[in-house]
Specification:
4 copies of one chain form a homotetramer. By secondary structure, chain A is α/β, with parallel strands linked by helices. Helices cover 29% and strands 18% of the residues of chain A. Chain A has one domain: Rossmann fold. Chains A and B meet through helix 6 of A and helix 6 of B.
């Protein structure tokens, strides 16, 4: 495990953006990156966009989302891919043929498709205060799981509700996520964390316990795992 | 996970020996391999010895044992390193400066020393019918553990007794092992298995469950894990 | 430059075969190897065949010839590919879809096709007493050349005559070869040499002069160049 | 050969800086970079300095100069290392133990020391309008040369004079340079070029001729050679 601490969100985002760029510069025929939506990487994408748009230098880099929350009622793309489009794909001008969508229609072949594409070179993901990563919330998946569909019980619906502007009837009955085993297959994993709300789970990750109730703890066993955080997230480390 | 099946012990040993050789041929300043004692790799070492001895082509390859059972009463090296010397180091003419012993005196710095040496390029290990690997017997270590000293209760002593020719008073009160986390840090893991006694655990490993009561299941999460077995060990696979 | 000396042709061939195998074991989606015909590698292929046939472990390994002498009169494959089939492809059971033929009909797209296939991971080649490699005989190609068609003047025809059992009317007016630039593009180059007839050119290669009249001297500038020879070929080295 | 064209010096410098950073982010125990002085990389260093200073993330990155012009009369460091200190080492806060000076006192062991340090991961260098790179001016070194001392005849002294503010008596009788063979040993080579004065030599490099009178042409044979330039330098390319 490699640990990098930036003094604030800006510096954490800069470090993370530099890491992502370093994979995009890899001398390979094709580079496959799985990237995260949500609020933590917002600034990182702002730093990446000007470096990536208007150039053909990264035409060999392909992108994958690793989870998806479908909208229930509308015929539109899910929450994750919509967020990634807005934060990164659209402003960066990534063409459709390099965006590999995971959704409710194709999740059963996600792991197989990625393997056929050459495997993921890197996954960059966040961590929840409850220890979840991607859609692997505690008690929803097992360490050994590949990409799966998770049914939403009341507890999960309540968690997801804010993503749907608290409109209960929009909340879907299930969502999709790559499992712990899918993510561990990637050649490198980068986790980003910021803010004091993440300090407790960061402390847990650094203590070295691996516990299925804190799903992200398994990622610390990956031989190429890098944790990038700000000082607030690191505040409980000695 | 990559799975290779040889038709018998001879073919499994040949495949495993070829893999080990391919790491020894890596174009690196230094290659660090952690290798296994016991009966499963016996034939593999017989195939390796003539390729490795009497040449300076592999002077950059260093060897590490990953567990050790010290003798209780005698001032002599432990069971594992003694076995490795007899099966491989001595006939292959590996000089002392490339043999990095783990024992009861230095285990607390094993992980640190390996990291300083550049990390392990590969670990080759066997698997027990009970799902143990190295000295990680069920209920003795946790997935998150680094190298540790395991105290031997009655159950463990009974298990180890045959290694000491059933002489109870030779059996030590503890042994040493690199933990699941230590092994997962290696860049590649190769597991070998032969014989019908291993068919059940092989089936478990292939089913994708990760369970701390079958410690070896965690290794299947490593992004570069290769399983080499004979047809008997594979006999319960569909 | 890495230099390995076996005591005789047997040992040189064993080392070379081990190297070739180590590339076939590389953990990649596809491995591209360009391999040499002629008499020097004969024993090497004998050692490789039993390791490669009757297994699907190497289904990701693709083969390329790097030169070709077409027959003039017959509607048949050229000298090089015919030799490779006899020595290796046929006994090893390599299927057609993994044999990528270079010939007089497709040479102009050879470099482009190889690049599209992901580039060559390794080229294994011999060296002539006159310093030629592949079909790059002195004064026929320049260091900067890619794959090319070489017209055969009288001097060249005399050289090639024995390959055609001294039947003058079979000797073609031209042959095909990957150029020095094509070969230098490969990620690794392995040169094999045996016999006292090669001692002089080996000495030249080791002295470090780079001279277009001894085409093989340029290969010593490749950052991953390995020279494997027997003691006779090494006999003029101090 | 990989070719990247930025629209002006600013964009070329940004691309080059990103490349250098991508090597500094490599997951290795130690990264060895050989970097260039002179005016072409000036802006690149300005972009690198804020990314490199005040962090311990790059403590594994070591720096090497590849040529040196010693001052004749003074007991002070040479022209190249002085320039590198001013442009990069000092503002970036690189400590002495990671600066590996090549000078007139140690040049005979430069290649050996670099090999012992694990080899160069990357060299970034410029190109002269006359086709020189490092101190390999036409007719001063051969393609096969390692690090060497070049005696300055009248012609060379006239060339170097401006570096010494046209003070003739400061101009040394010799200078030091890594040779073409030394540079080709690096795992990656990056060449930067800007301005219309470089357009002619860039055209020559792209045409594929390899000519000892234009020393830089040999670098195009390196399997991992990247050429980064601005539009002016690219203006004669079709």
């Amino acid at each position: 495990m490699k640990v990098l601490i930036g003094k604030d969100v800006e510096e954490m985002s800069k470090i993370a953006a530099d890491y992502v760029m370093s994979y995009m510069y890899q001398e390979k025929q094709r580079v496959n990156l799985s990237i995260t939506g949500g609020s933590t990487p917002k600034r990182m994408y702002e730093l990446l966009v000007p470096q990536v748009k208007d150039t053909n230098r990264f035409d060999h880099v392909h992108f994958y989302n690793f989870d998806e929350i479908p909208y229930r009622k509308e015929d539109r793309e899910g929450v994750t891919i919509s967020g990634l489009r807005e934060a990164f794909f659209t402003p960066a001008g990534i063409p459709e043929e390099r965006i590999h969508k995971l959704d409710q229609f194709n999740y059963q072949t996600q792991d197989e498709r990625i393997e056929k594409d050459g495997g993921l070179d890197m996954v960059i993901l966040g961590v929840g205060a409850d220890g979840h990563f991607c859609g692997n919330l505690p008690q929803t998946t097992k360490f050994g799981d590949l990409t799966t569909r998770v049914e939403c019980d009341r507890r999960l619906k309540d968690r997801i509700l804010p993503e749907f502007n608290d409109v209960e009837e929009d909340v879907p009955d299930y969502y999709i996520t790559m499992g712990p085993r899918s993510i561990m297959c990637a050649r490198h994993i980068i986790m980003i964390a910021s803010g004091v709300k993440k300090a407790e789970i960061i402390k847990t990750l650094m203590e070295g316990i691996v516990d299925e109730n804190k799903p992200a703890t398994v990622l610390t066993l990956h031989p190429h795992f890098t944790l990038i955080m700000d000082e607030e997230a690191a505040s409980l480390l000695s």
